[in-house]
Amino acid sequence: MAEEIILQTRNLRREFGALVAVADVSIQVQANTLHSIIGPNGAGKTTFFNLLSGNLKPTSGQVLFKGRDITNLPLHRTAHLGIGRSFQITNIFPNLTVLENVRLSCQALGKDNFRLFSSHRRFRQYEERAREVIDQVGLTKEALLLARTLPHGGQRKLELGMLLAPDPEVLLLDEPTAGMAAEQVPELLELIQQVQELGNKTVMLVEHNMN
């Protein structure tokens, strides 16, 4: 039995003045699958992800998530619905520990968000979830290290963990291997594949290196 269509675009278009960055793109993405969007710099890949995640509004067309029109929803709303988005530039809190980074990601999309007096029980749940995710991305030994002390490959793993923390259904990974040494890339790509297969995630990743 075929998986449901979890993410769909209909004639999605984005213009910047006379420049057409995304030209009437229509796709259907099945749940629990992994896809790569490949093309050279300037092809509109990141713009397309910005449209999918609500970071940018289209000139015309639609974005649907599980059949719901989310075209004009902002980034924080799509995140609450279950779409996680990473960026080309590593997006972490460098002066917090690995554990604190992931725990904050759990809390950001939790019911009580950043309330000062969140219950101890809720805090413990976030802590447990954070440690589970840290184990999943292979940073168990680095849990109490400051994020800025990690090598670039470790920071990319941390960013993936922060995306996984609130348990999204869809992951949009924008050049997840950007800036990494060539020998580190296979390990991260294998981790992404494991996340997709074991976690029943839908993963779309952008890559400009067609090798």
Number of domains: 1
* CATH overall fold name: Rossmann fold
How many E-type strands? Answer: 8
The helix count comes to 6
CATH architecture: 3-Layer(aba) Sandwich
* Derived structural class: alpha/beta
Whole-number mean pLDDT: 90
Explain what this protein looks like in three dimensions.
This protein has six helices and eight strands; from the N terminus they run βββαββαβαααβαβ. The chain has a single domain (5-207), classed as P-loop containing nucleotide triphosphate hydrolases (Rossmann fold). Helix 3 (98-108) packs parallel to helix 5 and helix 4 (120-136) crosses helix 5 (152-164). The chain has a four-stranded antiparallel sheet with strand order 2-1-4-5, covered by helices on one side. It has a four-stranded parallel sheet with strand order 3-8-7-6, sandwiched between helices. With 211 residues, it is α/β, with parallel strands linked by helices.
Write a concise keyword list for the protein shown above:
alpha/beta; Rossmann fold; four-stranded parallel beta sheet; 6 helices; about 210 residues; four-stranded antiparallel beta sheet; 8 strands
Summarize the structure.
The chain is 34% helix and 24% strand. It is an alpha/beta fold. Helix 3 (98-108) runs parallel beside helix 5 (152-164).
